[in-house]
What does this fold into?
Amino acid sequence: MKILKQLALVMLACTLVHCGNAEKKEKDQVKLKSNNSSSASSKEDANVTEVVLLATDQMQFNKSEIRVPAGKPIKFTLRHTGTMDIKVMGHNFVLLTQGTEIPAFANQAASAAENDYIPENTDAVIVHTKLLGGGQSDTIDFDAPEPGTYDFICSFPGHYALMKGKFIVE
Ligand code: CO
It folds into this structure.
């Protein structure tokens, strides 16, 4: 009789412990779910500045000025809206450090065909997209540089004269 009582107690204890664990697990799962569905990601998105720049078969960007707020992440997309081949009408977006001599940089870039016209070992490039042919696009993420005015160009040989603009962080 005594043994039976003890056994019953042990079984009761086990049941209680299991029950407690199960409840805890359930709570944890709810917590995880609510974390996943929380607005953390959408808040981040709201903080991101999205920029879309178009480039055409007429060797032009659709913007000569891009303004972004300081201190925020940027989601930047370059889209080549034309149909011409990358070897004939390749376009990229190259954001240059302040004080960069554009013609000198463009000359250097023109001789870097094997690297999509981005000179290696340069400190003049803040960020750049891939080189694109007609119909292609590329998106890059970067943080806005220090407030100020920066030049951007397409570094495909001969394009910078027309394909250039100001990137203004304010
Ligand atoms: Co170009």
Summary: The mean pLDDT is 84. The first strand starts at residue 49 and ends at 55. Residues 1-39 form one domain.
